[in-house]
Amino acid sequence: MITTSPVKISKALLTNPPSNVKCPSYDRPKLKEGILHIGVGGFHRAHQALYIEEVLGAGFTDWAICGVGIMPQDAGMSQALNAQECLYTLVEKSGANSSARIVGALTSYIFGYENPEAVFKKMASPEIKIVMLTATEGGYCFDQGTGELDFNNAGIKHDLATPEKPHTIFGYLAEGLDRRRKAGIAPFTVLSCDNVQHNGQVARSTLLSFCKKRNPELATWVATNVSFPNCMVDRITPATTDAERELVRTTYNLEDASPVVAEPFRQWVIEDSFCNGRPPLEKFGVQFTADVTPYEKMKIRLLNATHSAMGYLGYLCGYRYIYQIAQAPEFTPYLKDLMNIEVTPLVPAVPGINLDDYKRSLMERFANETIKDQALRICMDGSSKMPKFILPSIAEQLEHGGPIRRLTLCVASWIRFLSAVDEQGKEIPIDDPQAARLTGAIKANPRNPRPLLAMTDIFGNLGQSDRFVKELEELLNLLYDKGAKETLAMVREGK
Ligand code: CS2
Q1: Which residue among 148, 219, 274, 409 is buried most deeply as judged by most CB within 10 Å?
Q2: What are the chain's domains?
Q3: Continuous segment of H or E residues that includes residue 133
Q4: Angle of helix 216-225 relative to helix 199-214, nearest 10 degrees?
Q5: Which mutation among 378, 381, 388 tests ligand 1's pocket best, with the greatest number of atoms within 8 A of CB?
Q6: Rounded Cα–Cα distance for residues 447 and 415 (Å)
Q7: pLDDT per residue over 180-194, tens digit each?
Q8: What is the pTM for the complete model shown?
Q9: Is 251 exposed, middle or buried (0-12, 13-18, 19+ CB in 10 A)?
Protein backbone atom coordinates (compact mmCIF):
# COMPACT_ATOMS: atom_id res chain seq x y z
CA MET A 1 0.00 0.00 0.00
CA ILE A 2 1.50 3.32 -1.11
CA THR A 3 1.10 6.18 1.33
CA THR A 4 3.40 8.95 0.05
CA SER A 5 2.10 11.21 -2.68
CA PRO A 6 2.94 10.17 -6.28
CA VAL A 7 6.20 11.36 -7.83
CA LYS A 8 6.00 13.23 -11.10
CA ILE A 9 7.96 11.71 -13.98
CA SER A 10 11.03 13.84 -14.72
CA LYS A 11 14.75 13.42 -15.12
CA ALA A 12 15.18 14.18 -11.40
CA LEU A 13 13.44 10.88 -10.75
CA LEU A 14 16.22 9.06 -12.60
CA THR A 15 18.81 10.11 -10.01
CA ASN A 16 16.71 8.61 -7.25
CA PRO A 17 14.76 5.81 -8.94
CA PRO A 18 11.96 3.95 -7.16
CA SER A 19 13.06 0.44 -6.22
CA ASN A 20 10.24 -1.35 -8.08
CA VAL A 21 10.69 0.56 -11.37
CA LYS A 22 13.51 -0.09 -13.82
CA CYS A 23 15.20 3.09 -15.07
CA PRO A 24 17.57 3.85 -17.97
CA SER A 25 21.09 2.69 -17.19
CA TYR A 26 22.78 5.02 -19.72
CA ASP A 27 23.82 8.63 -19.47
CA ARG A 28 20.82 10.20 -21.25
CA PRO A 29 22.33 13.63 -22.06
CA LYS A 30 25.12 11.86 -23.97
CA LEU A 31 22.79 10.13 -26.41
CA LYS A 32 22.58 11.10 -30.08
CA GLU A 33 19.35 10.95 -32.04
CA GLY A 34 19.78 8.61 -35.00
CA ILE A 35 16.08 7.85 -35.50
CA LEU A 36 13.13 10.10 -36.18
CA HIS A 37 9.75 8.51 -35.54
CA ILE A 38 6.46 9.82 -36.94
CA GLY A 39 3.36 8.68 -35.03
CA VAL A 40 4.30 8.41 -31.35
CA GLY A 41 1.31 6.61 -29.88
CA GLY A 42 1.13 3.83 -27.33
CA PHE A 43 2.20 1.17 -29.81
CA HIS A 44 5.44 2.87 -30.82
CA ARG A 45 6.31 3.52 -27.20
CA ALA A 46 5.56 -0.09 -26.15
CA HIS A 47 7.33 -1.65 -29.11
CA GLN A 48 10.02 0.02 -31.22
CA ALA A 49 11.03 2.47 -28.47
CA LEU A 50 11.52 -0.41 -26.03
CA TYR A 51 13.81 -2.29 -28.43
CA ILE A 52 15.77 0.94 -28.85
CA GLU A 53 15.85 1.41 -25.07
CA GLU A 54 17.66 -1.92 -24.87
CA VAL A 55 20.03 -0.93 -27.69
CA LEU A 56 20.92 2.27 -25.81
CA GLY A 57 21.29 0.40 -22.53
CA ALA A 58 23.92 -1.82 -24.13
CA GLY A 59 26.06 1.19 -25.05
CA PHE A 60 24.99 1.84 -28.67
CA THR A 61 24.28 5.46 -27.89
CA ASP A 62 23.73 6.91 -31.39
CA TRP A 63 20.19 5.63 -31.79
CA ALA A 64 17.96 7.69 -29.54
CA ILE A 65 14.62 8.73 -31.00
CA CYS A 66 13.23 12.12 -31.90
CA GLY A 67 9.44 11.71 -31.81
CA VAL A 68 7.19 13.61 -34.20
CA GLY A 69 3.43 14.15 -34.27
CA ILE A 70 1.87 15.43 -37.50
CA MET A 71 -1.85 15.27 -36.71
CA PRO A 72 -3.82 17.94 -34.85
CA GLN A 73 -4.81 15.25 -32.32
CA ASP A 74 -1.12 14.78 -31.41
CA ALA A 75 -1.24 18.04 -29.43
CA GLY A 76 -2.02 16.11 -26.23
CA MET A 77 0.94 13.76 -26.65
CA SER A 78 3.22 16.68 -27.41
CA GLN A 79 2.15 18.48 -24.28
CA ALA A 80 2.32 15.41 -22.04
CA LEU A 81 5.73 14.24 -23.23
CA ASN A 82 7.37 17.65 -23.36
CA ALA A 83 6.17 18.34 -19.81
CA GLN A 84 8.02 15.23 -18.57
CA GLU A 85 11.21 15.45 -20.66
CA CYS A 86 9.85 12.75 -22.98
CA LEU A 87 10.17 10.10 -20.27
CA TYR A 88 7.26 7.75 -19.74
CA THR A 89 6.34 4.62 -17.82
CA LEU A 90 5.87 1.33 -19.64
CA VAL A 91 4.02 -1.38 -17.71
CA GLU A 92 3.88 -5.00 -18.82
CA LYS A 93 0.98 -6.99 -17.43
CA SER A 94 -0.03 -10.60 -17.44
CA GLY A 95 -1.87 -12.53 -14.73
CA ALA A 96 -0.60 -11.52 -11.30
CA ASN A 97 2.66 -10.28 -12.81
CA SER A 98 3.31 -6.69 -13.63
CA SER A 99 6.57 -4.86 -14.16
CA ALA A 100 7.32 -1.22 -14.89
CA ARG A 101 10.17 0.72 -16.38
CA ILE A 102 10.81 4.31 -17.27
CA VAL A 103 11.78 4.52 -20.94
CA GLY A 104 14.27 7.21 -21.91
CA ALA A 105 14.85 6.31 -25.58
CA LEU A 106 12.66 9.15 -26.80
CA THR A 107 14.81 12.20 -26.18
CA SER A 108 12.76 14.91 -27.88
CA TYR A 109 9.33 15.40 -29.40
CA ILE A 110 8.38 17.86 -32.15
CA PHE A 111 4.77 18.76 -32.81
CA GLY A 112 5.07 19.00 -36.58
CA TYR A 113 1.49 20.04 -37.09
CA GLU A 114 2.43 23.39 -35.52
CA ASN A 115 6.10 23.47 -36.36
CA PRO A 116 6.79 21.59 -39.60
CA GLU A 117 10.04 23.45 -40.25
CA ALA A 118 11.59 21.93 -37.10
CA VAL A 119 10.74 18.47 -38.45
CA PHE A 120 12.22 19.21 -41.89
CA LYS A 121 15.42 20.48 -40.26
CA LYS A 122 15.73 17.41 -38.11
CA MET A 123 15.06 15.11 -41.07
CA ALA A 124 17.80 16.88 -43.01
CA SER A 125 20.34 16.36 -40.23
CA PRO A 126 22.98 13.76 -41.21
CA GLU A 127 22.72 12.22 -37.72
CA ILE A 128 19.27 10.87 -38.59
CA LYS A 129 19.78 7.51 -40.28
CA ILE A 130 16.28 6.06 -40.07
CA VAL A 131 12.80 7.54 -40.23
CA MET A 132 10.33 5.10 -38.69
CA LEU A 133 6.60 5.32 -39.16
CA THR A 134 3.51 4.22 -37.31
CA ALA A 135 1.14 6.17 -39.51
CA THR A 136 -1.84 3.77 -39.04
CA GLU A 137 -3.19 1.62 -41.84
CA GLY A 138 -4.98 4.61 -43.36
CA GLY A 139 -1.89 6.83 -43.27
CA TYR A 140 -0.61 5.47 -46.60
CA CYS A 141 -3.60 6.95 -48.44
CA PHE A 142 -3.79 4.24 -51.03
CA ASP A 143 -6.77 3.12 -53.03
CA GLN A 144 -7.56 -0.53 -52.33
CA GLY A 145 -8.99 -1.00 -55.82
CA THR A 146 -6.01 0.29 -57.78
CA GLY A 147 -3.31 -0.26 -55.15
CA GLU A 148 -2.06 3.27 -55.96
CA LEU A 149 -1.72 6.45 -53.94
CA ASP A 150 -5.13 8.12 -53.85
CA PHE A 151 -4.69 11.56 -55.41
CA ASN A 152 -8.28 12.37 -54.42
CA ASN A 153 -7.35 12.07 -50.75
CA ALA A 154 -7.73 15.46 -49.09
CA GLY A 155 -4.39 15.16 -47.27
CA ILE A 156 -2.49 14.32 -50.46
CA LYS A 157 -4.11 17.23 -52.33
CA HIS A 158 -3.22 19.52 -49.45
CA ASP A 159 0.41 18.36 -49.29
CA LEU A 160 0.98 18.85 -53.02
CA ALA A 161 -0.50 22.34 -52.83
CA THR A 162 1.10 23.36 -49.51
CA PRO A 163 4.50 21.63 -49.24
CA GLU A 164 5.64 23.91 -46.42
CA LYS A 165 2.87 22.74 -44.05
CA PRO A 166 2.09 19.09 -44.75
CA HIS A 167 -0.67 16.99 -43.23
CA THR A 168 0.50 13.52 -44.29
CA ILE A 169 3.69 11.48 -43.98
CA PHE A 170 4.29 12.07 -47.69
CA GLY A 171 4.75 15.83 -47.43
CA TYR A 172 7.24 15.35 -44.59
CA LEU A 173 9.21 12.50 -46.17
CA ALA A 174 9.43 14.26 -49.53
CA GLU A 175 10.66 17.52 -48.04
CA GLY A 176 13.08 15.84 -45.63
CA LEU A 177 14.59 13.68 -48.37
CA ASP A 178 14.73 16.59 -50.82
CA ARG A 179 16.74 18.67 -48.38
CA ARG A 180 19.24 15.83 -47.99
CA ARG A 181 19.44 15.35 -51.75
CA LYS A 182 20.13 19.03 -52.33
CA ALA A 183 22.73 19.12 -49.55
CA GLY A 184 24.48 15.97 -50.81
CA ILE A 185 23.66 14.05 -47.60
CA ALA A 186 23.00 10.30 -47.75
CA PRO A 187 19.27 9.51 -47.35
CA PHE A 188 17.69 7.85 -44.34
CA THR A 189 15.98 4.48 -44.43
CA VAL A 190 12.18 4.66 -44.29
CA LEU A 191 10.97 1.93 -41.94
CA SER A 192 7.20 1.50 -41.92
CA CYS A 193 5.94 -0.25 -38.76
CA ASP A 194 2.25 -0.41 -39.68
CA ASN A 195 -0.01 -3.43 -40.09
CA VAL A 196 -0.03 -3.29 -43.86
CA GLN A 197 1.16 -6.25 -45.88
CA HIS A 198 4.44 -5.33 -47.62
CA ASN A 199 4.44 -2.11 -45.60
CA GLY A 200 7.88 -1.12 -46.92
CA GLN A 201 6.90 -1.66 -50.55
CA VAL A 202 3.65 0.23 -49.99
CA ALA A 203 5.52 3.13 -48.38
CA ARG A 204 7.94 3.13 -51.31
CA SER A 205 5.43 3.03 -54.12
CA THR A 206 3.10 5.61 -52.57
CA LEU A 207 5.98 7.96 -51.74
CA LEU A 208 7.39 7.60 -55.27
CA SER A 209 3.99 8.45 -56.79
CA PHE A 210 3.80 11.50 -54.55
CA CYS A 211 7.36 12.61 -55.39
CA LYS A 212 6.76 12.14 -59.13
CA LYS A 213 3.96 14.70 -58.94
CA ARG A 214 6.04 17.02 -56.82
CA ASN A 215 9.42 16.79 -58.48
CA PRO A 216 10.43 13.95 -60.84
CA GLU A 217 14.14 14.42 -60.08
CA LEU A 218 13.47 13.81 -56.40
CA ALA A 219 11.47 10.70 -57.32
CA THR A 220 14.40 9.28 -59.28
CA TRP A 221 16.81 10.02 -56.43
CA VAL A 222 14.51 8.38 -53.89
CA ALA A 223 13.98 5.33 -56.13
CA THR A 224 17.73 4.85 -56.50
CA ASN A 225 18.96 5.69 -53.01
CA VAL A 226 16.36 5.13 -50.31
CA SER A 227 15.60 1.72 -48.82
CA PHE A 228 12.20 0.72 -47.44
CA PRO A 229 12.52 -2.58 -45.54
CA ASN A 230 9.31 -4.54 -44.98
CA CYS A 231 8.68 -5.52 -41.39
CA MET A 232 6.16 -7.26 -39.16
CA VAL A 233 5.46 -5.73 -35.76
CA ASP A 234 3.42 -7.14 -32.93
CA ARG A 235 2.47 -6.16 -29.41
CA ILE A 236 -1.06 -5.65 -28.10
CA THR A 237 -1.15 -2.18 -26.57
CA PRO A 238 -4.46 -0.81 -25.25
CA ALA A 239 -5.16 2.90 -25.57
CA THR A 240 -4.01 4.91 -22.54
CA THR A 241 -6.97 6.09 -20.49
CA ASP A 242 -7.41 7.36 -16.94
CA ALA A 243 -7.46 3.71 -15.82
CA GLU A 244 -3.84 3.25 -16.98
CA ARG A 245 -2.76 6.54 -15.34
CA GLU A 246 -4.44 5.40 -12.15
CA LEU A 247 -2.71 2.03 -12.29
CA VAL A 248 0.70 3.68 -12.54
CA ARG A 249 -0.20 6.01 -9.69
CA THR A 250 -1.45 3.35 -7.30
CA THR A 251 0.96 0.54 -8.12
CA TYR A 252 4.17 2.47 -8.74
CA ASN A 253 3.51 5.80 -7.05
CA LEU A 254 4.27 7.65 -10.29
CA GLU A 255 2.38 10.60 -11.72
CA ASP A 256 2.61 10.08 -15.48
CA ALA A 257 0.35 11.95 -17.93
CA SER A 258 1.02 9.42 -20.65
CA PRO A 259 2.05 5.94 -19.49
CA VAL A 260 1.69 2.84 -21.66
CA VAL A 261 0.40 -0.55 -20.56
CA ALA A 262 1.07 -3.54 -22.81
CA GLU A 263 1.11 -7.32 -22.86
CA PRO A 264 4.48 -9.05 -22.26
CA PHE A 265 4.63 -10.52 -25.79
CA ARG A 266 6.47 -8.62 -28.49
CA GLN A 267 7.78 -9.52 -31.92
CA TRP A 268 9.59 -7.67 -34.69
CA VAL A 269 10.71 -9.28 -37.94
CA ILE A 270 12.53 -7.04 -40.42
CA GLU A 271 14.08 -7.35 -43.86
CA ASP A 272 17.69 -6.31 -43.58
CA SER A 273 18.01 -3.52 -46.12
CA PHE A 274 19.02 -0.26 -44.45
CA CYS A 275 20.64 2.28 -46.75
CA ASN A 276 22.34 4.28 -43.98
CA GLY A 277 23.13 1.87 -41.16
CA ARG A 278 21.02 0.53 -38.32
CA PRO A 279 21.27 -0.37 -34.64
CA PRO A 280 22.25 -3.97 -33.86
CA LEU A 281 18.64 -4.94 -33.19
CA GLU A 282 19.39 -8.64 -33.71
CA LYS A 283 21.12 -8.59 -30.32
CA PHE A 284 17.83 -7.58 -28.71
CA GLY A 285 15.38 -10.14 -30.01
CA VAL A 286 14.60 -8.69 -33.44
CA GLN A 287 14.58 -11.29 -36.18
CA PHE A 288 16.11 -10.35 -39.54
CA THR A 289 14.96 -12.20 -42.62
CA ALA A 290 15.27 -11.97 -46.38
CA ASP A 291 11.49 -12.14 -46.85
CA VAL A 292 8.97 -11.00 -44.27
CA THR A 293 5.92 -11.95 -46.40
CA PRO A 294 4.88 -15.14 -44.53
CA TYR A 295 5.28 -13.47 -41.11
CA GLU A 296 3.23 -10.43 -41.97
CA LYS A 297 0.52 -12.43 -43.68
CA MET A 298 0.24 -14.72 -40.67
CA LYS A 299 0.07 -11.82 -38.25
CA ILE A 300 -2.29 -9.53 -40.13
CA ARG A 301 -4.69 -12.20 -41.36
CA LEU A 302 -4.83 -14.09 -38.05
CA LEU A 303 -4.22 -11.62 -35.23
CA ASN A 304 -5.54 -8.36 -36.65
CA ALA A 305 -8.44 -10.01 -38.48
CA THR A 306 -9.58 -11.91 -35.39
CA HIS A 307 -9.33 -8.68 -33.43
CA SER A 308 -11.72 -7.04 -35.90
CA ALA A 309 -14.07 -10.04 -35.71
CA MET A 310 -14.13 -9.67 -31.92
CA GLY A 311 -14.38 -5.90 -31.92
CA TYR A 312 -17.51 -5.17 -33.98
CA LEU A 313 -19.57 -8.23 -33.12
CA GLY A 314 -18.43 -8.19 -29.50
CA TYR A 315 -19.40 -4.55 -29.14
CA LEU A 316 -22.82 -5.27 -30.63
CA CYS A 317 -23.19 -8.12 -28.12
CA GLY A 318 -22.60 -5.62 -25.32
CA TYR A 319 -18.94 -6.33 -24.48
CA ARG A 320 -16.50 -3.48 -24.05
CA TYR A 321 -13.15 -5.28 -23.59
CA ILE A 322 -11.41 -7.77 -25.85
CA TYR A 323 -10.59 -10.19 -23.03
CA GLN A 324 -14.33 -10.51 -22.24
CA ILE A 325 -15.04 -11.45 -25.85
CA ALA A 326 -12.10 -13.85 -26.13
CA GLN A 327 -13.24 -15.58 -22.95
CA ALA A 328 -16.97 -15.69 -23.83
CA PRO A 329 -18.01 -19.30 -24.52
CA GLU A 330 -20.27 -18.19 -27.37
CA PHE A 331 -17.36 -16.47 -29.11
CA THR A 332 -14.43 -18.87 -28.70
CA PRO A 333 -15.59 -21.52 -31.21
CA TYR A 334 -16.48 -18.83 -33.77
CA LEU A 335 -13.05 -17.23 -33.47
CA LYS A 336 -11.24 -20.55 -33.68
CA ASP A 337 -13.24 -21.62 -36.74
CA LEU A 338 -12.65 -18.28 -38.40
CA MET A 339 -8.92 -18.74 -37.99
CA ASN A 340 -8.75 -22.47 -38.71
CA ILE A 341 -11.27 -22.85 -41.51
CA GLU A 342 -11.26 -19.53 -43.35
CA VAL A 343 -7.81 -18.00 -42.82
CA THR A 344 -5.21 -20.69 -42.08
CA PRO A 345 -5.47 -22.30 -45.55
CA LEU A 346 -4.38 -18.94 -47.00
CA VAL A 347 -1.30 -18.54 -44.78
CA PRO A 348 1.93 -19.95 -46.22
CA ALA A 349 4.36 -21.97 -44.10
CA VAL A 350 6.14 -19.60 -41.74
CA PRO A 351 9.77 -20.52 -41.00
CA GLY A 352 10.19 -21.69 -37.40
CA ILE A 353 6.53 -21.23 -36.47
CA ASN A 354 3.93 -23.90 -35.79
CA LEU A 355 0.63 -22.29 -36.75
CA ASP A 356 -1.39 -24.31 -34.22
CA ASP A 357 0.84 -23.05 -31.42
CA TYR A 358 0.67 -19.53 -32.84
CA LYS A 359 -3.14 -19.54 -32.87
CA ARG A 360 -3.26 -21.02 -29.36
CA SER A 361 -1.00 -18.25 -28.13
CA LEU A 362 -3.20 -15.65 -29.89
CA MET A 363 -6.25 -16.90 -28.00
CA GLU A 364 -4.32 -16.68 -24.73
CA ARG A 365 -3.10 -13.17 -25.54
CA PHE A 366 -6.59 -11.98 -26.47
CA ALA A 367 -7.90 -13.40 -23.19
CA ASN A 368 -5.31 -11.48 -21.08
CA GLU A 369 -7.71 -9.65 -18.80
CA THR A 370 -5.03 -7.68 -17.06
CA ILE A 371 -4.43 -5.36 -20.02
CA LYS A 372 -8.07 -4.35 -20.63
CA ASP A 373 -7.78 -3.78 -24.37
CA GLN A 374 -10.82 -1.76 -25.46
CA ALA A 375 -13.22 -3.09 -28.10
CA LEU A 376 -13.59 0.48 -29.34
CA ARG A 377 -9.83 0.73 -29.96
CA ILE A 378 -10.16 -2.23 -32.30
CA CYS A 379 -13.28 -0.73 -33.94
CA MET A 380 -11.45 2.50 -34.87
CA ASP A 381 -10.60 3.17 -38.51
CA GLY A 382 -12.56 0.27 -39.98
CA SER A 383 -12.36 1.86 -43.44
CA SER A 384 -8.63 1.24 -43.51
CA LYS A 385 -8.43 -1.91 -41.37
CA MET A 386 -11.08 -3.94 -43.26
CA PRO A 387 -9.19 -3.74 -46.57
CA LYS A 388 -5.96 -4.90 -44.92
CA PHE A 389 -7.15 -7.48 -42.37
CA ILE A 390 -10.40 -9.06 -43.61
CA LEU A 391 -11.31 -8.32 -47.23
CA PRO A 392 -8.17 -9.84 -48.85
CA SER A 393 -8.91 -13.19 -47.19
CA ILE A 394 -12.50 -13.08 -48.51
CA ALA A 395 -11.22 -12.24 -52.00
CA GLU A 396 -8.72 -15.11 -51.91
CA GLN A 397 -11.33 -17.59 -50.68
CA LEU A 398 -13.77 -16.50 -53.39
CA GLU A 399 -11.19 -17.25 -56.07
CA HIS A 400 -11.52 -20.95 -55.38
CA GLY A 401 -15.00 -21.18 -53.91
CA GLY A 402 -13.73 -21.47 -50.33
CA PRO A 403 -15.58 -20.66 -47.08
CA ILE A 404 -16.24 -16.97 -46.27
CA ARG A 405 -19.19 -17.02 -43.85
CA ARG A 406 -17.31 -16.10 -40.67
CA LEU A 407 -15.22 -13.42 -42.32
CA THR A 408 -18.35 -12.02 -43.93
CA LEU A 409 -20.01 -11.87 -40.51
CA CYS A 410 -17.21 -9.54 -39.47
CA VAL A 411 -17.94 -7.24 -42.44
CA ALA A 412 -21.68 -7.37 -41.69
CA SER A 413 -21.00 -6.50 -38.03
CA TRP A 414 -18.91 -3.52 -39.13
CA ILE A 415 -21.74 -2.28 -41.34
CA ARG A 416 -24.27 -2.85 -38.53
CA PHE A 417 -21.89 -0.96 -36.18
CA LEU A 418 -21.75 1.93 -38.67
CA SER A 419 -25.47 2.54 -38.18
CA ALA A 420 -24.17 4.20 -34.99
CA VAL A 421 -27.02 2.94 -32.79
CA ASP A 422 -26.76 -0.30 -30.80
CA GLU A 423 -29.43 -2.90 -30.07
CA GLN A 424 -30.51 -0.99 -26.97
CA GLY A 425 -30.91 2.23 -28.96
CA LYS A 426 -27.71 3.75 -27.52
CA GLU A 427 -25.33 5.74 -29.67
CA ILE A 428 -22.21 3.95 -30.94
CA PRO A 429 -19.20 6.28 -31.23
CA ILE A 430 -17.73 5.89 -34.71
CA ASP A 431 -14.05 6.82 -34.82
CA ASP A 432 -12.91 6.79 -38.43
CA PRO A 433 -11.58 9.58 -40.67
CA GLN A 434 -14.15 8.42 -43.22
CA ALA A 435 -17.04 8.27 -40.72
CA ALA A 436 -19.25 10.82 -42.48
CA ARG A 437 -18.87 9.14 -45.87
CA LEU A 438 -19.51 5.66 -44.44
CA THR A 439 -22.49 6.53 -42.27
CA GLY A 440 -23.92 8.69 -45.06
CA ALA A 441 -23.87 5.71 -47.43
CA ILE A 442 -26.15 3.62 -45.22
CA LYS A 443 -28.37 6.37 -43.89
CA ALA A 444 -31.20 5.83 -46.36
CA ASN A 445 -31.31 2.09 -45.76
CA PRO A 446 -28.93 0.61 -43.14
CA ARG A 447 -29.77 -2.92 -44.36
CA ASN A 448 -28.45 -2.20 -47.83
CA PRO A 449 -24.65 -2.63 -48.07
CA ARG A 450 -24.49 -1.86 -51.80
CA PRO A 451 -23.68 1.87 -51.56
CA LEU A 452 -20.74 0.94 -49.33
CA LEU A 453 -19.62 -1.86 -51.63
CA ALA A 454 -19.56 0.66 -54.46
CA MET A 455 -16.63 2.35 -52.66
CA THR A 456 -13.95 0.49 -54.57
CA ASP A 457 -11.17 2.37 -52.77
CA ILE A 458 -12.21 0.28 -49.72
CA PHE A 459 -13.82 -2.85 -51.16
CA GLY A 460 -11.86 -3.26 -54.41
CA ASN A 461 -14.07 -5.33 -56.71
CA LEU A 462 -15.69 -7.46 -53.99
CA GLY A 463 -19.02 -5.76 -54.72
CA GLN A 464 -19.04 -7.65 -58.02
CA SER A 465 -19.09 -11.03 -56.34
CA ASP A 466 -22.73 -12.19 -56.24
CA ARG A 467 -21.86 -14.79 -53.65
CA PHE A 468 -20.24 -12.33 -51.26
CA VAL A 469 -22.95 -9.69 -51.69
CA LYS A 470 -25.70 -12.26 -51.07
CA GLU A 471 -24.04 -13.62 -47.91
CA LEU A 472 -23.36 -10.12 -46.67
CA GLU A 473 -26.95 -9.01 -47.18
CA GLU A 474 -28.24 -12.11 -45.48
CA LEU A 475 -26.00 -11.67 -42.42
CA LEU A 476 -26.71 -7.96 -42.17
CA ASN A 477 -30.44 -8.64 -42.19
CA LEU A 478 -29.98 -11.34 -39.55
CA LEU A 479 -28.11 -8.86 -37.34
CA TYR A 480 -31.07 -6.49 -37.57
CA ASP A 481 -33.81 -9.12 -37.28
CA LYS A 482 -32.35 -11.55 -34.73
CA GLY A 483 -29.65 -9.48 -33.03
CA ALA A 484 -25.90 -10.05 -32.68
CA LYS A 485 -25.99 -12.97 -30.20
CA GLU A 486 -28.43 -15.06 -32.20
CA THR A 487 -26.69 -14.33 -35.49
CA LEU A 488 -23.41 -15.42 -33.94
CA ALA A 489 -25.06 -18.64 -32.72
CA MET A 490 -26.43 -19.34 -36.20
CA VAL A 491 -23.07 -18.82 -37.89
CA ARG A 492 -21.37 -20.92 -35.23
CA GLU A 493 -23.80 -23.75 -35.90
CA GLY A 494 -23.25 -23.50 -39.65
CA LYS A 495 -26.67 -22.01 -40.44
C1 CS2 B 1 -5.33 -4.18 -33.59
C2 CS2 B 1 -3.84 -3.88 -33.52
O3 CS2 B 1 -5.78 -1.95 -34.19
C4 CS2 B 1 -6.16 -3.11 -34.28
O5 CS2 B 1 -7.18 -3.42 -34.85
O6 CS2 B 1 -5.54 -5.41 -34.20
O7 CS2 B 1 -3.60 -2.63 -32.97
C8 CS2 B 1 -3.11 -4.96 -32.72
O9 CS2 B 1 -3.41 -4.86 -31.35
C10 CS2 B 1 -1.63 -4.87 -32.94
O11 CS2 B 1 -1.36 -4.94 -34.31
C12 CS2 B 1 -0.92 -5.99 -32.19
O13 CS2 B 1 0.36 -6.11 -32.63
Answers
A1: 409
A2: 7-289 (3.40.50.720), 293-492 (1.10.1040.10)
A3: strand 130-133
A4: 150
A5: 378
A6: 9
A7: 999 999 999 999 999
A8: 0.97
A9: middle
